[in-house]
Amino acid sequence: MFDLTGKVAVITGSSRGIGRAIAEAMARAGAKVVISSRKPPACDAVAAAIVAAGGEALAVPCNISDRAQLEALIARTVGHFGRLDILVCNAAVNPYFGPMATMPDEAYERIMGSNVRSNFWLCNMAATHMAETGGGSIILISSIGANQGSATLGVYGISKAADFALVRNLAIEWGARGIRANGIAPGLIRTDFSRALWENEELLRRVEEGTPLRRIGQPEDISGAAVFLASRAAAYLTGQTLIIDGGLTVKEPA
Questions:
Q1: Considering only CA atoms, which of 70, 85, 119 is closest in space to residue 9?
Q2: Is 108 among the residues known to form the active site?
């Protein structure tokens, strides 16, 4: 039920961290994966590693903030593999850490443009091709910050809350064409993207003590859920967002 053989998956932000872990896991499950991020050498290295491990991968560099590059990403995928079955929107940015009151307009525009508008563009581009071959699975990587207020990551949380709404609406609009849309909301994961958080020893200690599993996550903790959402095992699951945070958000406040 978790076999992805014959499926083609595009994963944005897949040259490292959660995106790379998802790409590697989907390749092991049999999918042909498209590795995409801004830097060509990083994409090439991940694709080569997947091929060396016996998988099939194509590197297509892309800046998600550029609509033309997103269109080229989808066109190159379909042109090379002949189809598109799975889209994972993982790439995101957060150039600002601090209160919203002092946030520069440029930072706000970059966060909302890359994390919301780009996902909106790419999901609709991909869904059009998925519908032509009988359906597919769209997965958005959100964050538990979507359900929490923050004094330092407010607008990032707002952008991730948009993912919750986007998957619900995609599920409704495309469900009749066989397309499912779901999200994953990770807690604190040990990636380069979140390095400023987990390298803060006091913050790390508080998060670990407040998490029932007593640790922060690893990228591989997210990849299995992505394979599940892309597979036949999740054939009747759509419009939902899975929270994967070691139990952090279900623990009562201290």
A1: 85
A2: no
